[in-house]
Amino acid sequence: MTSPIQLRALQADDLPVLAQLYRDAALVTGGECYSPEQTRIWARHTHDLDQFGKVLGAGRTYVAEWEGEVASFGQLLPMDHISYLYTDPRFARRGCALALCTEMERVALASGIAHLRTEASHLSRGLFARRGFEVQDIERVMLEEGVFFERYRMLKRM
User: Is the pLDDT reported for residue 2 higher than 70?
Assistant: First the structure.
């Protein structure tokens, strides 16, 4: 049986879909652990589509499709850092983020990376912990408007 999950590299026409996916993940899934004010500010990150495209194009960005529909995306930037890992709430807990994480770990290891790091939200901390990442520190980051966001700096020895 083949997996319904297929991974591929970022394509230019993915940007509007990935921006919406990011906003939905922040607002809907993020609402499980963060306040409406935090998620509203978090979701704004993709409002400038050109800037979002530059950010995603700067690293190695991968897309997971579930039966042909964009379900999740992740990015290595730089090669020792998972800077994005987001899943459309409709595809949550189906293994898309896990597949992306596994692929990014494989690519980093093949590139000679000894340690892989990330800043995980309350939501993604468990996934990264199951992959062998360890919490190095808890950060309180100022988003905007005096709103703080708590996240976990995590590290995995490859």
Answer: yes
The pLDDT value given to residue 1: 64
Average pLDDT, the chain: 94
Q: What is the CATH number of the domain that holds 22?
A: 3.40.630.30
Tell me what pLDDT residue 31 has: 87
Residue 143 within a domain? no
Amino acid at the residue 108:
A
What is the rounded end-to-end Cα distance, in angstroms, of the chain?
30
What's the domain count of the chain? 1
- Do the bridges between strand 60-66 and strand 5-9 make them parallel or antiparallel, or are there none, so unpaired? antiparallel
Is the pTM higher than 0.90? yes
SS3 track for the chain: CCCCEEEEECCHHHHHHHHHHHHHHHHHHHHHCCCHHHHHHHHHHHCCHHHHHHHHHHCEEEEEEECCEEEEEEEECCCCEEEEEEECHHHCCCCHHHHHHHHHHHHHHHCCCCEEEEEECCCCHHHHHHCCCEEEEEEEEECCCCCEEEEEEEEEEC
The token duo for 140 is 């309180």
In a domain, 140, yes or no: no
